[in-house]
Amino acid sequence: MNRTTNPTRRHRTAIGAALACVAVLGTLATANGANAAAPSAHTAHPARAAHAAPTPYVINHYGEENADKGRAERRPAHLVLSEFTSAGDLHWTQWGAKQAVATGEVTGNWCLETCLDKPLKATLTLSGPKTVHGKKVFSSFTLKLAGGSGKYDAEDLQGKRPLATG
Q1: Which of 67, 66, 52 is nearest to 137 (CA)?
Q2: How many helices (H) and strands (E) does the chain have?
Q3: pLDDT tens digit string along 69-100?
Q4: Under 8 Å between Cβ of 58 and 74
Q5: Which residue among 24, 101, 163, 166 is the one 20 to 30 A from 66 at the CA level?
Q6: Sorting pLDDT into bands at 50, 70 and 90, what band is 23?
Q7: Residue 147 burial (C-beta neighbours within 10 Å; 0-12, 13-18, 19+)
Q8: Portion of the chain with pLDDT greater than 70, in percent
Q9: How open is the CA angle 20-132-105, to the nearest 5 degrees?
Q10: Residue 50: left (phi > 0), alpha (psi -120 to 50), or beta?
Q11: Contact indicator for 79, 89 with CB cutoff of 8 Å
């Protein structure tokens, strides 16, 4: 029997595998951050923390170089939201002390068949600022797909969800 593989299917499979790898790395990074017992040598001095920038950062695990520890960023163009979901082409309309709001495109392993080649339009809201290692960071996100979640049954689309903060 002669078997041929559809190039589009191979492409989807490869991207699905890549998203799965990002999911595993994000999960490990979150677990490692939560289990860190000793404060970092880079922890800000309490007196200096009061002079920190008024707007929080977001810990971003986007990109191979940030997959393990994440990187504190403001207004990133791409953001790993969870081990299941990523956002890209982000256009920030607000970045304040209590929340940040962006519109962009969302993909996740919950929609690989439909959103891999055509990401879904969404509004992303970051909230819940808290201080971690002397730096104020957003600790949760809410994701609203344009037109509603429809057929997608994913935890990341159900209300406020936690972000990696360490």
Answers
A1: 52
A2: 3, 8
A3: 888 999 999 999 999 999 999 999 999 999 99
A4: yes
A5: 101
A6: very low
A7: exposed
A8: 68
A9: 40
A10: alpha
A11: no
